[in-house]
Amino acid sequence: MSIEVTILLSVISVSTAVYFGLKRNRRDEKTDDQKEAVAMTTVVVKLENIGDGVNEIKGEMRGLRDDVKDVRERQAKTEESLKSAWACINEIKRQPTRVGGE
Length: 102
Description:
Layout: H1 2-94
């Protein structure tokens, strides 16, 4: 009969150890899942921030393109005006100078 008690105690001990081992394993999995969720949330937030930054840069680039376009248009107008002014200056230089009201 003493063998049966030791076998029974051994079986109970092994069963208890397996039960608590499995319980510990499940708890560790939950903790790992929570940590992974936190890490993924952090990654998602950072990616959203990067996306917002990219959108902001795109908006600024559109504004810069518009500014460059305006500057090019103004430059073209200025060059045309300058050509016209030089043509007038050259015309004035070609005219003979009048001395003494002649």
